[in-house]
Write a structure and sequence with these properties.
234 residues, mainly beta, twelve-stranded antiparallel barrel, 3 helices, globular
Length: 234
Amino acid sequence: MLKKLLLLSVLPGIVWAAEGQGVDALNGEVGLGVDSDSDILSTGLAGRLNIPVAGYIGVSGELRYADNSAKNDYYADGRERYLGITGFVRDSSIGKLAFNYTAAYWEADVYGETLDESYNQTKLSAEGYLGSFTLAAANTQVSDFGDNNSWDYYDVSAAFYPADNAKISLGMMAEEYKLNDEDTQYVRFSFQPMNALELSAGYLRDPSDKTLSFSASYFFDTKVSLIKRDRQYR
């Protein structure tokens, strides 16, 4: 509980200081993504709907599907499905507080049999907007993944917008509260041409492997800059 309170302190008083809407207008997006490490190639589809509720409050619903292809005999082909909902409070000039619940389903084909697991994931996150920078922190908890196995991890990041339609993000993830050089590190570059299509490329390094990722997302109903989309529409 103390860790969660420290996380929330990133944005003191956001609920009371808010001046803008949580979501400026109803909008949606669809996306394609590819992740590749030394063992698995994963291709995925995703859809998201962002809904204004009242004042500073917004809700997002998301569906994701991933198909995983093994590159060697030590891993198996498989599939993942996710259904998530996020509620949040945001002021577009200050930041955002959000809580996400995701129901997930994982399965893999092992020696002619299908192994499967369903599990739950909750995420508490906070963002602060400082001019062209966004600072963020999150705590994610995974529950009931096989034999009631559960764990949680932390994520801190900083994003910089060198232009309204370009973003560079740096971050670290760890299962321990204190981050260090042995934890997972990542960098991601995003660009949004024509105010409707976001193209992203990322690199993630953990102690055991490296992952390259690429994605493209198309946005319906809104044609705004990337920084405005991130802070007012999703």
